[in-house]
Structures are given as structure tokens and as C-alpha cells.
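Hello Y.,

Per our agreement to keep a running log of every chain we model this quarter, I'm adding this entry. I've kept the format consistent with earlier entries: sequence first, then predicted structure.
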Amino acid sequence: MRLGQDERIVLIVYHHYMPFIYQVLQLIFIALPFYFGIYFLSPVFTLKTIILSYLILSVILLFIVVYLGLIYWLDKLIITNKRVIFIDWKYLTVKVESEASLNDIQDVVSVEKGILTFFPIFQYGTLIVKTASQKANVEFPQAPRPSILQKFITRIINL
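Predicted structure for the entry above:
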């Protein structure tokens, strides 16, 4: 992403942290049977083998959490005085950039689901920036407080 002439960054927004916490909890839930399996097989193995098994499993789990965290936190929505840009990392080696010029934006939609959005810890949803062209839509999932972002982008467009 390169900024154009006279273009400056107004706001950078990262994903909300709660979906990442859900993802880590799911990963721990998936790993629990392996920990229990090592525990139940402990009478068969030596203490050194059991400790090594727990260590290897924990390192693998930590590696996966760090990898998912990097991908999750590298994604960002960049709002400049001329464009809205979403950088989406699919893997650590593959990223997809989508952008919409402020002049081309026709509608900004925020989607929040559930009654838990009244609590600040659960105030996240999807921000969709629609343009005249179907290919140029910018969709930012797991956006923190998408209704506030919607108002912010609308205010910038009207300036």
C-alpha cells in the first residue's frame, strides 16, 4: 500500500480482540483430548517421555496460537483522506488488499448481531463499504464498534 500525493492516514483500525479469544479457546478445546490422552497413558511411559510429550504438545499449541495471532493482528483497515483500504492477510505469505476511493463510495453499512452488542466487550461486527462497482466493495469483518466507524467514514465523505 502506497499513499498518493497529498494523501495522509486519518485512522488505522484493527480487528476486535474477542473473536481471536474465541478462536484460541476453540484451539485449546481441540487440544484438551491430546493432553488427557497423555495423562491416561502416563502409567505406560517413563516420566521423561511424559514430560517430553507435554512439552512438544504445548510448543505446537503455542506455535499455532502465535501464527493465528500474527495473521489476525496484521489485518487492518486504513482510512485516509482519499481512500478506505483493507489489508487482509490470508497466510503470513499471502495478503489481499481491497480499497475504495472516497469519491466512489455510495454506502457504508455496519452489521452487528445479537443482544450482547450492548456490552462494550462484545461490540464488534462487519463494516461494509459499498461502491458503484461490485468488485471494489471493502468488507472488514470483526470490526470494533462498526457503527462508529460507519459514522466516521460517512463524515469524512461529506467533508
